[in-house]
């Protein structure tokens, strides 16, 4: 078996959409013959087969977007004698073979014995086909998502076809008696036992109850990276977080005053973030230890102030870096933030744009969070969390006033930074924001 | 040159390029009124019924480039580079950026400040699209390419949602640059050679057709 992977089409390209399989499962393919087509940012590409043989498995359906190096299918070089094409045939009949695609827990290259998912999964398919006739992609997807054995669903569509309504009715009925243990015993799914002789040795998989409580999905490459990075950071640094309450009224007023002009002149909104970044840069210049990192028993002071800005993506986050942030004013910072965020979301950041940060800011306030305890972006030693700016009643000179209040949280590495310094630093950021004097336009 | 004719010519040249029989090519053509839909295009971005298009003298084709729907017509410079990317960079992202760059540079020569919009491939001037890009790659050999509006009658874009984006289109003429087609082509060729590291040799249309 040869794995067919989503190829790397360029440095900046981390994923591609599989637009079309040019061969069907069970079909013969020659080495270098076009096997499938992918699409990345306005470019369609035909991908040649890495080996000669039979397309044994299609693991990624047409229309799915997957990361590079994801296994999208497998080629059986034996050339298709034996049981494989037989197993594949019913899948071929149902153009997008969903059960196979739904069960790739083996994304990062399984070694010798990968047959369990293949053997078990297609087995369910023939029953669907036999009993239900052609199924719409919607029904197929619903069945897969809710792990429904379609053999048990009564079809009311034309020719006994199973419709979306049938599945909804079935699901509603199933909901009432939630079978905690009884499920598998009372109603063993008929399909696997009949169709899949090798079911025995792979105990965990066929045990999938008729109504699964879980759904297995491999993490994206980005998710894996994020997970590793977070744990590494927690293991590396001695995280401590301090919170400061900041009166943003001055900044808020300035922002309101210039908002429209700013938008008209520069074509982008003026947010709080560049103000916070500007104040942070000043504080970093005053307390260079917060802009440092640790290497062994040495302290590395960075002469550049490169600020990472955490950007939420659809399924993850990335921290692009504003280089030499100390050389930028509010306009320059806002422009850099807008540009980096847009390109991060479009996945067009260059590798060096996410490296070399010396301090990070995460603006969870934009999602409504009042405050939080962010994790340090290694190898940095501190990160500033910015909460939502909200009008709040506060006491000033024994009178109650309405002010725009925001909580700043600084998570710092106590190996290098002590609480006193952390609070001096955050206090400096606070002071710069509360006594804002710099003009914006 | 009719779209289908240019398509066939590209196919032929791509095969020859793959076999190493010819060097890289840069075709420059002009199409009659044509609307094409990329492989991942959405029919709903075609706003007019095909019948209306026929009556308006616009032909419609499904094609195998990346991107959604686009319009080609008189007054537009359509460039089809047939390049073996293995000899430049094995990077389709960098290739698309290079195409954008050469158009941006060519436009700069006419005093037009064009640029990119993050996440929206193509060349833009103040939020309006002046050049569209859609590429096909087979074994690192490119086909299709870009369409730059020089003096295009922009009213034809009413039939489509260009590239599936609800953004205005523009042309050099609409921006006040009354450039001669030949001069723009000259600029594109020069910048093509510079950006993509190619020595440009003119072969003339007759050789190819």
Question: How would you characterize the overall build of this protein?
Answer:
Chain A is of the alpha+beta class and 441 residues long. Chain A folds into two domains: 2-219, OB fold (Dihydrolipoamide Acetyltransferase, E2P) (Beta Barrel), CATH 2.40.50.100; 222-434, Chloramphenicol Acetyltransferase, CATH 3.30.559. Helix content of chain A is 33%, strand content 23%. In chain A, the strands form five sheets. In chain A, strands 9, 12, 15, 16, 17, 18 and 19 form a seven-stranded mixed β-sheet that branches. Chain A has a four-stranded antiparallel β-sheet with strand order 1-8-6-3, with helices on one face. In chain A, strand 13 and strand 14 (316-318) form a beta hairpin. In chain A, helix 1 (84-93) crosses helix 3, helix 10 crosses helix 11 and helix 10 (273-286) crosses helix 12 (419-434). The radius of gyration of chain A is 28 Å and the shape is elongated. The model of chain A is unreliable at 80-132 and 177-208 (pLDDT under 50). In chain B, a hairpin with a 2-residue loop joins strand 8 (128-138) and strand 9. In chain B, the strands form two sheets. Chain B has a six-stranded antiparallel β-sheet, with helices on both faces. Chain B starts with a helix and ends with a helix. Chain B has a single domain (3-195), classed as Bira Bifunctional Protein, Domain 2 (BirA Bifunctional Protein, domain 2), CATH 3.30.930. Chain B is built from five helices and nine strands. Chain B has helices spanning 3-18, 50-55, 92-108, 181-195, 205-208, and strands at residues 25-29, 34-37, 59-62, 69-72, 76-82, 115-117, 120-125, 128-138, 141-149. Chain B has 209 residues and is α+β, with helices and mostly antiparallel strands. The interface between A and B is medium-sized, with 27 and 28 residues. Strand 5 of chain A pairs parallel with strand 8 (128-138) of chain B, so a sheet runs across the interface.
